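The protein record filed here:
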Amino acid sequence: MTETPEARLKRMRMRSWRRGTKEMDLILGPFADEQLAAMDPAQLDLFDALLEENDQDLYLWVTGARQGPEQLSTILQEIGDHARSRLRQEG
């Protein structure tokens, strides 16, 4: 059975908010809520691949403490920029 575009976005948003670590929930959840609907299919494929990664690695990649995989570098930068922007707005 093929996943509809709406079901895919819903699944990806849910997986973004329910990661297993609160830090990644708070980084990926708001990003997904604000950005997924505007992404093209290739960007969605990258984000879907990112959701398969380990939270401990993702956190280090998004925060810039460690370099992530080259194929995810653009989306990791976008997520990190989004999270930093949100922190500045809240602070």
Remarks:
- The mean pLDDT is 95.
- The chain has one domain: 5-90.
